[in-house]
Amino acid sequence: MIRFDTNNYEYNKSSPIGVYIIHGFSNTTYEVKEIAKFLGDQGFHTIANNLPGHGTTVEECNRVKYQMWIEHVMQDIANLISISERTYVIGCSMGANLALYLASIFPLSGCIVGGTVLKFNNPFTIHITNRLLCKIIKFSQKKIKNDSNIKYYGYSSYPLIALNEMRKLTRKVISKLPKVKSPLLIIHTESDRLSLKENVDLVYDKTSSEIKQKFFIKHAHHNLFDENPDQEEIFNEVLKFISKH
After folding, report:
1. Number of other CB atoms surrounding residue 51 within 10 Å
2. Of 32, 105, 206, 236, whose Cβ has the fewest other Cβ atoms within 10 Å?
3. pTM, full prediction
4. pLDDT tens-digit map of 182-220
């Protein structure tokens, strides 16, 4: 089963506390809609929108430049800040990268990132092979196994031109980390196959936030805000962080 959602989500619009939630690369709001609803039920104004090229087609995703992702989230967060007394951003995977970018520019009340991918677990493929060949080999079919324990998200193929745009985005975000000063919660699961623990240390060491903490869980998969054995613990930690800051 491919978990895919074309919808945008917004809950509890009347709340003065805004939370903007960003999904990951080639995924959709499917992976973050549960935390959006949870926080909405807790009294916060939550928004989760599909990024450009997401929730559409893999071909459309390949036509998007990384600057379009940045412009999209900057506009969304600026709108939310304009109507909120306090504003927070939450991101998963590439969404975490974009959340950190926003935190480097806007005076946010807090930034929460999970499954951050600034350093890749296959750097040669990302930085060399795909960068050189993505205009020739534009897609890579996902090898979907008939295994109920494996969850698949987003498109059935990887958009490789867009993946090269994500590579460019990571370089941009890494350069911005010293400008992040918002209270920061960094979540990492030991079962993550895509995000290296090295990413946790990179974000923690390079950001300038006076308040920052690492939060580790064991069993969640990479899409750690969606259904998983640690979901309740993750949601409660996020709620505690937002309520405290």
Report:
1. 24
2. 236
3. 0.96
4. 999 999 999 998 899 999 999 999 999 999 999 999 999
pLDDT tens by residue, 47-66: 999 999 999 999 999 999 99
How many Å apart are CA 245 and CA 233, to the nearest integer? 18
**Residues 6+ away with beta carbon under 8 Å from 88:** 17, 18, 19, 20, 108, 109, 110, 111, 112, 242
Task: Locate 228 and state its tokens.
Answer: 């998983």
Question: Position of tokens 């499917």?
Answer: 30
Q: What is the pLDDT of residues 99-111, one digit of tens each?
A: 999 999 999 999 9
Task: Please name the residues in contact with 234: beta carbons below 8 A apart, sequence gap of 6 or more.
Answer: 114, 187, 215, 217, 220, 224, 225, 228
Q: Report the SS3 class of residue 35.
A: helix
SS3 233: helix
Q: What fold, for 2-244?
A: Rossmann fold (3.40.50)
DSSP string, 170-199: HHHHHHHGGG--S-EEEEEETT-SSS-HHH
At 54, list the tokens.
């997401």
> What is the identity of the amino acid at 152?
Y
Among the residues of 15-120, which ranges form H helices? 33-41, 58-61, 66-82, 94-103
Predicted confidence band at 2 (pLDDT cuts at 50, 70, 90)?
confident
